[in-house]
Amino acid sequence: MRIIYLSKSSWRDWIKVWSRNSCFSWRMSANSPPGKSDGENHHDIVVPPIQNDNTGPRFRDLDVDSIRRFLAQKLGFYEPPDLSPPVEKVLDEVTLDGIAKWIKSDRCQNIITLSGAGISTSAGIPDFRSPETGIYHNLQKYDLPEPQAIFEINFFKQNPKPFFTLAKELFPGKFKPTVSHYFIKLLHEKGLLLRHYTQNIDTLERGAGIPEDKLVEAHGTFYTSHCLECRKEYPLDYIKSVIFADQIPICTECPGVVKPDIVFFGESLPDRFQRCLAEDFQKCHMLIIMGSSLEVQPFASLIDMVPEWCPRLLINREKAGVRSPLLRLWGMMSEGLQLDGDSIRDVARLGDCDDGCLELADKLGWGDELRELVAREHARIDSIHSLTPPLSPSTSHELHDIPLHTSEPKL
Question: Which of 95, 301, 322, 364 is the most exposed place for a label (fewest CB within 10 A)?
Answer without folding.
Answer: 95
